[in-house]
Amino acid sequence: MLLDYDSSRIKLNSLFLQCFFGYEGKTISKPIEKVGLRIMSASDEEKFGNQPPELIVLADGERLRLGNMYRENIEFSQSGGIYEYLVNTIDANDFVRIAKSARVEVQIGSDELQLSGDYLEALRDLASRMNP
């Protein structure tokens, strides 16, 4: 897919993390069991190819091997950027453990992403909404 919007606001050689969950109905009626993770890689070259990279999270020094990430999509911008979207789901208990940590490092393949400050606060906020 070729992007037709101005991608100049996205810095190349960056990783972005999105976390989400779903539930039936208008309100959460039972505890969430799985949390979806989406990682977007912005680069000037394809990074992950067809080989699913492993997702490892270091949460306060504890190593959590959370499985492989799978390509959801790849987009090519007119300015030359390549945007790869990788997804997977993790156990909600692992997500809560990550959200409660003071220091979090995400490793996806050979790339690393440090989470701190507002990012960790956003994870904590999402975790706080997961139970009825």
Spatial strand sequence of the major β-sheet = 1-6-7-3-2
The CATH architecture category equals Sandwich
What percentage of the residues does DSSP assign to strands (E)? over 45%
Radius of gyration: 16 Å
The stretches of 5 or more residues where confidence is low (pLDDT under 50) are: 1-8
**C-alpha end-to-end distance:** 39 Å
CATH class: Mainly Beta
| Helix segment tally | 2
The major sheet is characterized as: 5 strands, mixed
Mean pLDDT: 88
Q: H/E series, N to C?
A: EEEEEEEHEEH
Alpha-beta classification:
mainly beta
Shape: globular
Structurally, the number of domains stands at 1
Helix content bin? 10-25%
- CATH topology description: Immunoglobulin-like
**β-strand number:** 9
Describe this structure in words.
With 132 residues, this protein is mainly beta. It has a single domain, classed as Immunoglobulin-like (Sandwich), CATH 2.60.40. Strands 1-6-7-3-2 form a 5-stranded mixed beta sheet. A 4-stranded antiparallel beta sheet has the order 5-4-8-9. The longest helix has 11 residues. The radius of gyration is 16 Å and the shape is globular. The N and C termini lie far apart (39 Å). 18% of the residues are buried. The N terminus is likely disordered.
